[in-house]
Amino acid sequence: MTNLYIIIALLLFVAVIYAFWRLQKKHIKFSTRVFIALGSGIVYGAILQLIFGATGEVTTGAIQWINVVGTGYVRLLQMLIMPLIFVSIVGAFTKVEGTKDLGKISATVLTALLATTAISALVGIGSVMLFNLDGAEFVQGAAETTQIAALDERKEMVVDLSLPEQIVNFIPSNVFADLSNSRSTSTIAVVIFSAFVGVAYLGIIRKNPEDGAFFERIIKSLYAIVMRIVTLVLRLTPYGVFALMIKALSTSDFNALVNLGKFVLASYAAIITVFLIHMLILLGYKVSPIQYLKKTLTVLSFAFTSRSSAGTLPLNIETQTKALGVDAASANFAGTFGMSIGQNGCAGVYPAMLAAIVAPTVGIDVFSPAYIFTIVAVVTISSFGVAGVGGGATFAALIVLGALDLPVAIVGLVISVEPVIDMARTLLNVNDSILAGIISSKRVKRFDESVFNDDEAIIKSDI
Fold first, then answer.
1. Is the pTM of this model over 0.85?
2. Could you give the domains of the chain?
3. How far from 164 is each of 167, 168, 173, 381, CA to CA, in Å?
4. What pLDDT is stored for residue 195 in this prediction?
């Protein structure tokens, strides 16, 4: 009987997938299809859990096949990450109007990412205090015990490295290995290598314009090819979002949500607060938050469901350039840098909250201004090189807790609600990178207001 129920569940899944394909053939707007997929996934996943349970054989069996679509889609996006980082950053160097703009763009993007990370850490600490979570103790079940044991192994990889050694790890020694994403810091290593290639191009274009122009044409061709692949993969977004949301809702541990409800509420309160601060920053740059949200709902929704800043990179850059009016150089720098530097959710709010929660258990006064400043400073510095994929927040938390000499078991104790919080954290990460792109574009005076205000300038429905 179990196999029959699994087959029925999968047939319904295929029927909905076919319905999305029909919507695409009718040229229904891309954003509309994504939101329909999002809502359908929530309903389908909730019904699946309600009838068969989160760990039931039917749910587990159906999700194994549904994962082929959801996880397969995310992997296709991840396949594009390293090539896209390379052509985006090198391409950005070919698009800037001289080294003056290059300096402004890179400095502005990095400043925006790190400054908002510091703010995020401060908000995270404030949320812990508001919800009286400082010194809180959480229930340790079987899943948490297993996770804590696994964390001890990862801790040795991180804590044993001094800050200078961690910085050295960012520098690529074998770029081909990093292009295959073989290390936890491969992303930032490829960013650094691509920046060196871009700087070398600027030197060649001055001394030998002919060779420089030839290289520029190669990069433009590569960029066009990669972006065409991006377009092909993005056409699968409604199907991927539908499958990912089904998994998220059908396998969520709602008992854990109740047990750790206060921590979940505090996390979401902090994330929403930082998001509102982002909107205030936009207002400060005379950018309408309402129009901004209309243009970014699709990419932010995908970030929320996929839980992958890296996987969202192609859609991130497309949204900035085609829907928001951000110049290509700023969009490429902000999108790629924001994927591994200064992530507000995973590297800002989350590790700061855990540090503030656990500090009183070892006799530290978390209300001390000096200690608050220490947490913010460590979080901001440690935000370099956090991978924009699942597990990046855990990596960031281990670095921060290790640097502050705090116990890391807290990371394992909240593992049950990690997926629920990670969705919002990823949305915040992506939003911060887009914000950095807008600020940079505004500073170099290349922000296209006409594109931003044009309601028709969105991710095209034929994607």
1. no
2. 2-453 (1.10.3860.10)
3. 5, 6, 16, 11
4. 85
